[in-house]
Each structure stands twice: as structure tokens, then as C-alpha cells.
């Protein structure tokens, strides 16, 4: 197999612009597998991915394509995660390619993630083929989209392919363009091995399966490999390609995409972005851009039943085998007992982990309000990083506090601009720039990460009737005037309900929070006072009245079974309550605090 | 273990189930369900059937047959029936001779105690002195009169067919017919009824001198018209709680014991039959939708009156579903039923439930600390304040 007939490419798009549909078409057209099977087996292999309609893990598949020039080409499609929480993973997958198909919806036009993906692909020096999809839609504006591609992306809009992935229109031309426009991989098979890790997963039989793109050199079973970031060495057991199932081959060589197994025990041993080389003949320089995926969002995870603590730890360890971006360490809460402070890439990542713990491991959990990581300079001159609001030092010990900011892009039709600016102001956004693109604007804001962590995206969607798109990346830590807001139930502070907020928003937040809690805490035998306080100063208060009556009037011979079953159902519901002091607090209270 | 009968179930299957679940006690209650109503009340979710031509006769035939089949159960000869209760529906739609025939058949097939309490639920508009005298002659010892309200503005809104005058007349007719044990049913928490209005009704009824009073807070049950369609003008919780206490105080002044959440009696006149339920004791049942409890088996008859008739015409017991209680469920039922009464339960039962459950023991401790639950003479019971919140405790005790 010569490299001149290899093409490594990726498909990138804003969500719902048709990435998966086009991938299915390409698989079907090259006879790799029929489209339906492809959807079920390849592109969305996790249940959660299918349900949420997003790709969480990168996938890769090898297509064999007989082009119009009569030659057979090997096309490696490297599918990328489709959510802003995973932009580092996307950048590494793109680094494994020479080209990318950038899909733009003919009716929606360019969106925030179109742009973000375009920049990622440009940064990776990829050949970008613009593809205008959904030309079958009545609202499709192919010429307008060409113009936008030319103006906004500085690509040649006239060279964009106009297709309908749904109907297959124009898809054969996509395959031809991949062959014609994307360069074959360059690389020296005789140079020292240099391979980029762009994904991995844990298999209980083979250990970690590492997805690699070889830049130079060769690798085969028995090769002693070296991981350049941590200096660990392993003996390769198997190498192979995806077609689409894993198929062992004798050797992978420069330019090729495939997998390696080498008895690695944890996914964290070969992280995304890692450079693999030969132990005996290492390459001079690793790939640039490697970094540890850093958790941005933190929350406490606690079992509702204390007896499930060990089961929760085992489950977290199992999940981490496959997900090095996720971190956890034990913590104790006065209110909730023993649990873990977990770190996530973003809120979606957090929800995925929580859902998997509840579904796959059958655990009942309390998740505390998500927090970001704050930097604190104490009066004693120490620098602390705090991920749990209840661990914040008292104000007299704080010299300065810093919070993380993100740089964000919002794309939205001009008619929603006012609403967007209003939302940005509420969320302490700082306007950076504004560009007009026809009927749409591209606005850049800097936001405190804490402000966009929970419900920002939902609000953005709702005020723009779904038209706004959003993308962000971490920028820097900035000094900020922050205070800790405590919640007290019947006078006792509940550490798991504490949050850190900007001083200017503390009153409003405290008021909203106690109102929300009043609505979710059920009436109990005695009155429950809910207070929000900064230090010793109470800033808001609500009361849950004591239960007035809760009684079944009639219970005779025919009522007994029905009554017992009714109470048994209520009892099931009560299992999702946590006893905090003498107050029964439902599970949702802990997460709902930031959504107020 | 639970089950439900399929239409083609072997005739013997459910009979065998009952046959194989002999009662632990030799003294049983017996509930007879009379499903017919002239009109359905708006709050009612009970199993009722419209009174159509021929339906009553067909039902009575089926009921007689059911008594025959129950009497054929292998353990039937050794049991004695200590209490009989005819509920509905509207049992007082039965003519005296029809009722007499049912009771005669019951006595012919079972050993009914000579001093058995025999109660009939009556609606004021369907009784006369003559009919009640006939009932009494047939062996009825106790009448439960469905008065519900004495407010002529409220009664039609409930869908009741009588007015306050009719209720008073029915009570007088029972006395004239020589019924020495009369219970009156009232409701509170009704739309358009304030605390004072209910207190007046309570005083008026107590002035009649009934031996027994039942008063039910309105519940919007799923199977009722109000439960389905909703109802306007429901009073706030404070009003309902106020009505509960107005009744409790008035009954105490007149010397009636508050012996169950919704029941009051002059000393010696508690409902013997209903106490069977609250003691988690055993009872047989006949009639559409009627529920029985023998051994560890709770069973329910087919609800629809025509299907009930068909089963019996085909010669099989009309049992629709059954459930065998686990020891844990039995204990739970004993607690949540026993704690409905002022007798409460033996303290040992509660201790058995609390053993090894520190969180529950702590919560029950709260009930004691607030004097909602009290201990006396080796038993534990809810106070009148505790009755009002009882479901919050029962959820935990199951």
C-alpha cells in the first residue's frame, strides 16, 4: 500500500448540520457497511450518545474507495466529539488528519461551532473542503451560504460542494474531492516511530486500545514503544485498523491510522495528545500541543444511602479507566456525609458521568451545585485553589480571589442582539467585539466561567428562539470580588448548599435560592426556616410551614391493599431524600440551587 | 406474591388458593357489597352500579350462589361469623324481604353468632320506618346513616338525593323502628362549608343522640367525578384542620370516644366489624369488588357487576386478584391499621419494626417528643394531633 493512495480526514460541523448523516452516506457508498448498521454500531456506540444526539468519543473507520481515476484509495475517517466541552479532543483528532470536511447547513448558515471548528482545522494546517448540506430544504440558501463561506471563513465559497446527505445528492463528489483535494500523508517510514494518540478506550480483555496516527516510522507487534510525556515503555501486542471492527494487521507505517494494544492498564497511561515513539530509537521532538485535559467544573457526588459509598468509589474508578479527563477525590460534608469531589470538562461531561453512574451502576446520588476552581491568595501569602465553596477560608484570611474567565463566541440573527446583550450583562459578560455577517452578528464576550456553567446555554437558546449558537474556551484567571453565600436550614448551615457568587449578585442570588428551596423542600412535622447568609448576615429568608394534615380518612376492608401500595410508592419516592440534620431534603434541591 | 385471574383460569384455581389459606382465627367478619345506587355521589369512588331492570335480581341470585361456594371451602365449617356488614353502593335499596333472604342464606351456610353485630349502610331517602322495622326483624342490629351534611345548599352539590329534613326523619324512623344502635356519617372539608357551618351540623347530629358518628375529611379520589373533573371552592387546609378539631371537641363534650381517625362512639358502641379491619384481623367478603382477608391472603372480587354475575353463573368464585402478604408486610399493615385507633398497637410491634433502623427510630423519636405518639401500658398510640398527620408516619412504618 503506498501512501499516495491514503487520505486521512475528519468531518466537522456545528451540531445538527448533518455530520453523522454524511458519515453514514460515505460508509454506505464505499460499501463499508450499510448506513443503518453504521449508525447503530459505529458512530454512536454509547447509548448516551445516541440519546443526546451527540458524539462524545472520537471514532475512526477505514473506507476503501475506488475513485473515478480507477485507483483504490484508503480513506480514514476520524470522527470527532461534537461538543464544546471536548474541544481539546477535537483538536487532537484533527491533528491526526490532512484534511477536513467542514459542513455548513444551507438553511442555518455559519454558526459558532462552525467557526470554532474552522479555526481548529486551520490551526492544524488542514486542507478544508467546505460542504453545503441540506440543499433539499425549502429554506436552503446555497448562494448565500457560499457567500458567507467566502466572507466569514475566507475559503473559496465557489469551491464548496452542495449536497443533500439525507438524499445522497452530491455525495459521490464529496468522495472525489477527498481524493483530489486532500493531500496524501507525508512521512518517512524509515524514520524513528512518531505516532499521535487521538483517542483510546479500555477493553477488559486487551487492556487499553490506543488510537494512533503514525507520522513517521513503523510499528508492529513486539515493537518496544515509549510514551514521551511520562517516559513509560511497553511492548506492543497487536496493531490493527478499523474496518469498521478492529482488524489486526502486520504493521502500521508512516501516514496510517490504526490502533495499538500494549497491555496498558489505564486509559490515563496513554492520554489523548500523547506522542508514541520507539524506546530504542526515539524521535527527536514530540508532537506540539499536548496537554493534560483539565477539569473545569467541579461538584460533590454523594450516595443517598451511606452504605453505597464503597460502590460509588468502585464505579468512579471504573469510569475513570475510560475517561482520564474526569477526576475525583474523597471529601466529607457535614450535611451529606462521605462522598467525592469530582472534576469535569464541562457541565455536559458532568451530566454524562452522573447518568452513567445511576444507570450502569444503579446508584442513587446527590450531586451538589457545580462550582469552578477559584484561586485564592491568603493574607499569609499562600496561594490556594478551591473547588468546593465550603472550603473557602474566612474573609479575613483572603487577600485576593481570582476566578476563571472564558473567551466566547455567539452567533445570532441581528434581531436577537438586544436580548443577547441583556443576558450577557446579567452573566457579567464583557463585550469584546462585534462583526456583522449579513443578517447575523458574531459577538465575542469574555465571561466568568461560573456564570455560564449551568443554565447559560439553555437561556441563550430560549431568548433567541433556538437561533443563537455558542462556543467558548478557557482564557485566564482574573481577580474578582467574590463572597461565599451560605444556606441555613433551621439555623444550621448546610455546607453542600454553599456557593461562591459575585458580591453584586449575592442578594438577588440568595433570594432566588431560598425561594427555590422553599418550593422543593416538602412540608415536615415542624416548620423549616430557610436562610441565605453571607458570613453572619442573613440576606434572605423563607419558611416551609409545618405539615397541617396528612391523613387517610377512610380505611376499611377494601381500602387496605390500595392504601398500603400507595404508601409504598411514596416510600420509594422518599428514598431520594437526604436527612440533613432533622430536615428531609430531596435530591433535586442540591442541584437546583444554581438554576434559580 | 400477587396474582390476577385470567378469564379462562381453571375453575378450581382460585378456589384452591382460598381453600389452601385457612384463617388463623375461628371468628371472622363478613362483608357483603351491594353495588347499586340510584345516583352516584360526586365525591364517591366506590364500586357502584346503576340500578337497572333485572340487575338487582340477577345480582341477588349471584350473591346467594357465592355464599354457597364460600361455604364449600374446606375450613368454612369451623369458622364462626362474629360481625356482618352490608356496605355499598346503597344497601338500603334492598327491600326488607330481599335483605332477609340474604341474611337467611348466610345463616344457613355459616355459623353466624347469635349476638353478631349486623350493620346496614342506609341512605336517608331510601329508608322508611316500615323498611327499617323489616330489616330489624331480619336480624339487623345496627344502622349506619349516610347523612354527610345538614346544609341544604351543600347536599345537592355533593350529588346527594336527600335534604337535612330527610336526614332527620330517617334517623327518627330508625329509632321508631327500634334500632338501638345508629351511626351517622358526616363529611367535612367540603366546598362551601366553613368551620362554623360544620360545627353546627355536628351539634345538630349529636343532639339526635346517635351511638356512633363517622366523619370523613373529603378526599378527591381518582375514581370519583370530583377527582376526575376537579371541584371549585375547596376550603384551605386551615379550615379543614379547624373542622377536625371542632368535631373532636364537640364529641368529647358529649362523651363520645374518638376511637379511630374518623370514628367516634359512645362507650360500648364502637363498630365491632370495622375494628376487625383495624386490628388486621380476618374477614370474608362477597359481592362485586368486595375484598377479603384470610390467612395471609388478601383477595378482591371482580368489580363489574355483570362479570361478577357471569362468574357465579358459571359456578366459580368471582375472585379477580389476590396477594399473599409477607411477614414484613403483615407487620407493616398491623402497625398502620392499629395506629389508626386510640387503642394503638403493642409497643413490641413497633420495636420490632424499629430494630436495626436507627434513622427511623430517630424519626419516631420526633413523633414522641412532639406528643404525636404516646406510650401507655405497654402499648403505643397516636394522639388526636397525631391522627391528623398519621400518613407521614405510616409511610415510614411500612
| Unreliable parts of chain B | 6-12
Q: What's the CATH first level of the largest domain in chain B?
A: Alpha Beta
Strand content of chain B: 15-25%
Q: Look at the helices and sheets of chain A and give the structural class.
A: alpha+beta
Distance between the termini of chain B: 17 Å
Radius of gyration of chain A: 27 Å
What is the domain tally of chain B?
2
Most extensive contact: A-B, 25 and 51 residues
Instruction: Please indicate the percent range of residues of chain A in DSSP E strands (runs of 2 or more).
Output: 25-35%
Spatial strand arrangement across the major sheet of chain A:
11-10-16-7-8-15-12-13
Radius of gyration of chain B: 21 Å
Query: Structural class per helix/strand content of chain B?
Result: alpha/beta
Mean pLDDT of chain A: 87
Describe the 3D structure:
The complex is a heterodimer of chains A (596) and B (398). Chain A has 596 residues and is of the alpha+beta class. Chain A is 26% helix and 34% strand. Chain A has 15 helices and 33 strands. In chain A, the strands form 7 sheets. Chain A has an 8-stranded antiparallel β-sheet. Chain A has a 6-stranded mixed β-sheet with strand order 2-3-1-4-5-6, sandwiched between helices. In chain A, α6 (142-153) links the parallel β5 and β6. The longest helix of chain A has 15 residues, at 506-520. Mean pLDDT of chain A is 87; it is low at 38-45. In chain B, 41% of the residues lie in helices and 23% in strands. Chain B starts with a strand and ends with a helix. Chain B is built from 16 helices and 18 strands. Chain B has 2 domains: 2-278, tm_1862 like domain (pyruvate-formate lyase- activating enzyme, Alpha-Beta Horseshoe); 343-398, no CATH class. In chain B, β13 and β14 (297-301) form a beta hairpin. In chain B, α2 (55-71) runs parallel beside α3. With 398 residues, chain B is α/β, with parallel strands linked by helices. The relative contact order of chain B is 0.13. The model of chain B is unreliable at 6-12 (pLDDT under 50).
Amino acid at each position: 500500500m503506498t501512501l499516495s493512495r491514503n487520505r486521512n480526514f475528519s468531518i466537522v460541523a456545528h451540531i445538527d448540520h448533518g455530520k453523522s448523516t454524511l458519515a453514514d452516506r460515505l460508509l454506505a457508498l464505499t460499501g463499508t457497511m450499510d448506513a443503518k448498521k453504521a449508525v447503530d454500531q459505529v458512530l454512536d456506540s454509547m447509548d448516551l450518545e445516541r440519546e443526546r444526539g451527540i458524539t462524545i468519543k472520537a471514532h475512526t473507520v477505514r473506507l476503501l474507495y475506488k475513485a473515478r481515476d480507477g485507483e483504490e484509495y484508503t480513506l480514514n475517517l476520524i470522527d470527532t466529539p461534537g461538543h464544546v466541552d471536548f474541544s481539546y479532543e477535537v483538536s487532537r483528532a484533527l491533528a491526526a488528519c490532512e484534511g477536513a470536511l467542514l459542513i455548513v447547513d444551507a438553511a442555518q448558515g455559519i454558526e459558532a461551532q462552525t467557526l470554532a471548528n474552522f479555526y481548529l482545522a486551520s490551526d492544524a494546517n488542514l486542507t478544508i473542503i467546505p460542504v453545503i448540506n441540506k440543499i433539499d430544504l425549502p429554506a436552503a440558501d446555497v448562494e448565500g451560504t457560499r457567500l458567507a463561506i467566502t466572507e466569514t471563513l475566507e475559503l473559496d465559497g465557489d469551491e464548496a460542494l452542495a449536497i443533500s446527505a439525507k438524499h445522497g445528492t452530491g455525495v459521490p463528489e464529496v468522495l472525489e474531492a477527498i481524493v483530489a483535494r486532500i493531500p496524501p500523508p507525508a512521512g518517512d517510514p524509515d524514520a524513528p516511530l512518531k505516532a499521535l494518540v487521538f483517542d483510546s478506550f479500555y477493553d477488559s480483555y486487551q487492556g487499553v486500545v490506543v488510537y494512533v496516527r503514525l507520522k513517521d516510522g513503523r510499528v508492529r507487534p513486539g515493537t518496544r514503544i515509549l510514551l514521551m510525556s511520562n517516559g513509560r515503555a511497553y511492548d506492543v501486542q497487536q496493531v490493527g485498523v478499523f474496518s469498521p471492527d478492529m482488524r489486526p494487521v502486520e504493521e502500521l507505517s508512516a501516514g496510517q491510522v490504526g490502533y495499538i494494544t500494549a497491555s496498558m492498564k489505564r486509559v490515563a497511561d496513554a492520554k489523548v495528545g500523547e506522542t508514541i515513539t520507539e524506546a530504542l530509537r526515539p524521535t527527536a521532538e514530540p508532537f506540539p500541543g499536548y496537554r493534560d485535559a483539565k477539569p473545569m467544573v467541579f461538584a460533590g457526588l454523594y450516595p443517598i444511602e451511606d452504605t453505597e459509598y464503597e460502590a460509588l468509589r468502585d464505579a468512579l474508578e471504573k469510569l475513570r479507566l475510560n475517561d482520564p479527563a474526569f477526576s475525583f477525590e474523597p471529601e466529607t460534608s457535614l450535611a451529606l456525609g462521605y462522598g467525592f469531589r469530582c472534576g469535569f470538562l464541562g457541565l455536559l461531561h458532568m451530566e454524562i458521568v452522573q447518568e452513567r453512574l445511576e444507570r450502569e451502576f444503579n446508584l442513587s446520588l446527590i450531586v451538589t451545585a457545580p462550582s469552578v476552581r477559584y484561586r485564592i491568595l491568603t493574607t499569609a501569602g499562600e496561594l490556594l485553589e478551591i473547588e468546593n465553596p465550603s472550603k473557602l477560608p474566612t474573609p479575613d484570611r483572603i487577600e485576593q480571589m481570582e476566578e476563571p474567565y472564558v473567551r466566547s463566541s455567539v452567533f445570532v440573527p441581528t434581531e436577537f442582539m438586544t436580548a443577547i446583550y441583556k443576558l450577557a450583562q446579567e452573566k457579567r459578560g464583557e463585550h469584546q467585539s462585534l462583526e456583522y455577517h449579513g443578517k447575523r452578528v458574531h459577538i465575542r464576550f469574555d465571561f466568568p466561567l461560573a456564570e455560564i456553567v449551568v443554565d447559560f446555554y439553555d437561556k441563550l437558546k430560549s431568548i433567541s428562539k433556538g437561533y443563537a449558537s455558542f462556543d467558548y474556551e478557557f482564557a485566564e484567571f482574573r481577580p474578582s470580588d467574590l463572597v461565599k453565600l451560605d444556606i441555613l436550614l433551621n439555623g444550621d448551615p448546610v455546607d453542600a448548599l454553599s456557593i461562591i457568587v459575585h458580591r453584586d449578585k449575592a442578594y438577588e442570588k440568595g433570594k432566588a435560592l431560598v425561594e427555590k428551596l422553599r418550593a422543593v423542600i416538602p412540608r415536615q412535622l415542624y416548620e423549616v426556616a430557610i436562610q441565605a447568609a453571607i458570613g453572619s448576615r442573613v440576606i434572605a429568608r423563607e419558611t416551609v410551614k409545618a405539615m397541617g394534615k396528612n391523613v387517610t380518612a377512610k380505611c376499611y376492608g377494601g381500602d387496605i391493599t390500595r392504601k398500603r401500595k400507595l404508601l409504598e410508592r411514596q416510600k420509594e419516592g422518599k428514598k431520594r431524600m437526604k436527612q440533613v440534620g432533622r430536615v428531609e431534603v430531596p435530591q433535586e434541591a442540591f442541584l437546583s440551587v444554581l438554576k434559580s | 406474591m400477587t396474582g390476577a385471574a385470567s378469564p379462562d383460569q381453571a375453575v378450581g384455581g382460585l378456589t384452591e388458593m382460598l381453600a389452601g389459606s385457612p384463617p388463623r382465627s375461628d371468628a371472622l367478619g363478613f362483608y357483603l357489597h351491594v353495588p347499586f345506587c340510584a345516583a352516584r355521589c360526586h365525591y364517591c369512588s366506590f364500586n357502584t352500579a346503576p340500578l337497572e331492570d333485572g340487575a338487582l335480581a340477577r345480582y341477588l341470585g349471584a350473591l346467594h350462589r357465592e355464599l354457597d361456594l364460600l361455604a364449600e371451602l374446606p375450613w368454612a365449617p369451623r369458622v364462626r361469623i362474629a360481625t356482618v356488614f352490608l356496605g355499598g353502593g346503597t344497601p338500603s335499596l334492598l327491600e326488607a324481604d330481599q335483605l332477609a333472604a340474604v341474611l337467611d342464606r348466610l345463616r344457613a351456610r355459616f355459623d353466624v353468632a347469635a349476638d353478631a353485630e349486623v350493620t346496614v349502610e342506609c341512605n336517608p331517602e331510601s329508608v322508611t320506618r316500615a323498611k327499617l322495622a323489616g330489616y330489624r326483624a331480619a336480624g339487623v342490629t345496627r344502622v349506619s346513616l349516610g347523612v354527610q351534611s345538614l346544609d341544604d345548599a351543600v347536599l345537592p352539590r355533593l350529588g346527594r338525593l336527600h335534604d337535612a329534613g330527610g336526614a332527620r326523619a330517617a334517623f327518627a324512623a330508625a329509632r321508631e323502628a327500634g334500632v338501638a344502635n345508629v351511626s351517622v356519617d358526616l363529611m367535612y372539608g367540603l366546598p362551601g362549608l366553613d368551620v362554623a357551618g360544620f360545627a353546627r351540623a355536628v351539634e345538630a347530629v349529636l343532639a339526635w343522640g346517635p351511638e356512633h358518628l363517622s366523619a370523613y375529611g373529603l378526599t378527591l379520589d381518582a375514581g370519583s367525578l370530583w377527582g376526575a373533573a376537579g371541584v371549585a371552592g375547596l376550603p384551605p387546609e386551615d379550615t379543614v384542620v379547624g373542622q377536625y378539631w371542632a368535631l373532636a371537641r364537640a364529641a368529647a363534650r358529649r362523651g363520645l370516644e374518638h376511637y379511630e381517625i374518623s370514628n367516634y362512639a359512645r362507650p360500648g358502641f364502637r363498630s365491632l366489624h370495622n375494628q376487625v379491619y383495624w386490628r388486621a384481623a380476618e374477614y370474608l367478603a362477597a359481592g362485586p369488588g368486595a375484598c377479603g382477608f384470610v390467612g395471609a391472603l388478601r383477595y378482591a372480587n371482580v368489580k363489574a357487576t355483570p362479570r361478577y354475575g357471569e362468574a357465579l353463573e358459571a359456578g366459580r368464585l368471582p375472585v379477580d386478584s389476590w396477594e399473599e402478604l409477607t411477614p414484613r408486610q403483615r407487620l407493616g399493615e398491623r402497625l398502620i391499621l392499629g395506629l389508626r385507633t386510640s387503642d394503638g398497637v403493642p409497643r413490641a410491634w413497633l420495636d420490632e419494626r424499629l430494630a436495626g433502623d436507627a434513622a427511623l427510630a430517630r424519626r419516631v423519636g420526633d413523633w414522641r417528643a412532639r406528643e404525636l405518639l404516646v406510650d401507655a401500658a405497654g402499648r403505643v398510640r397516636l394522639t388526636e394531633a397525631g391522627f391528623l398527620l398519621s400518613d407521614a408516619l405510616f409511610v415510614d412504618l411500612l
